[in-house]
Amino acid sequence: MTMLNELIDSKIIAILRGVEPHYSLQTGQAIIRGGVRFMEITMNTAGAESMITEWRKEFSKQAYVGAGTVIDLEHAKRAVAAGAQFLISPNLDVEVIDYAKQQHIPIWPGVMTPTEILAAKKAGVDAIKLFPMGTLGINYIREIRGPIADLPIIATGGVRLDNITEYFAAGAQAVGMGTKLVDLEHAKAGRFEEITATVRRYTEIVAEL
């Protein structure tokens, strides 16, 4: 099974932006206990590379660890050197896509318009991140699915407990989630069991899809 197939099966990517090194491992453990197996640390997080390396060492048999907010080739090279198993961008950068392909690492670039989606497909990606969904709205997925039916969509932005099933009904194969899934205020306070409980609520919902 490919990594993308495993993502489509598990359906959720946890996005960690601003996580701090002194509680990052416990946060990762809390996410995994809740049932999410794909986690990314964004490259604009202080200490991202060292935390990616640490997570890879700690969670290699439990989850996939990737890098998010990979906006350019420099970010991509640093993320790969740190051990990232997949790359996710908010933008479409063909240099980043080409580098990831050379390294045999999945790259899921951020796109919004039909032109960007088809450019990403032409560049050889196996899935795209549709972003920012919090602004575009769920109906945008349905509209995109009309002319573009065969490229897996990771919808990122605006996902909540009360609407997550709508994203999949509209045509998404996976979702990327930040603070609604992982509240770092709980992590800072050492309330990791609350993170696990929230993550589990989401994974129980998508398990029924």
Descriptive account of the structure:
- The protein has 11 helices and 9 strands.
- α3 (48-59) runs parallel beside α4 (73-82).
- The chain has one domain: Aldolase class I (TIM Barrel), CATH 3.20.20.
- Helices cover 49% and strands 15% of the residues.
- β2, α3 (48-59) and β3 (64-68) form a beta-alpha-beta unit.
Q: Could you estimate the helical fraction of the residues in percent?
A: 40-55%
- From the 3D coordinates, which CATH architecture would you assign? Alpha-Beta Barrel
Overall geometric form: globular
Structural class: alpha/beta
In angstroms, what is the radius of gyration? 16 Å
Treating each run of at least 4 consecutive H or I residues as one helix, how many helices?
Answer: 11
Poorly predicted ranges (pLDDT <50, ≥5 residues)? Answer: none
Number of strands: 9
Counting structural domains, the number is 1
Order of helices and strands: HEHEHEHEHEEHEHHEHEHH
Give the termini distance in whole angstroms.
20 Å
Proportion of β residues?
15-25%
Lateral strand order in the biggest sheet? 3-2-1-9-8-7-6
Averaging pLDDT over every residue, what do you get? Answer: 97
The largest β sheet comes out as: 7 strands, parallel
CATH homologous superfamily grouping: Aldolase class I
CATH class: Alpha Beta
Lay out the secondary structure.
Layout: H1 3-10, E1 12-16, H2 21-34, E2 38-42, H3 48-59, E3 64-68, H4 73-82, E4 87-88, H5 94-102, E5 107-108, E6 110-111, H6 114-123, E7 128-130, H7 133-136, H8 138-145, E8 153-156, H9 164-170, E9 174-177, H10 184-188, H11 192-207
Helix pairs in contact: 2-3, 2-11, 3-4, 4-5
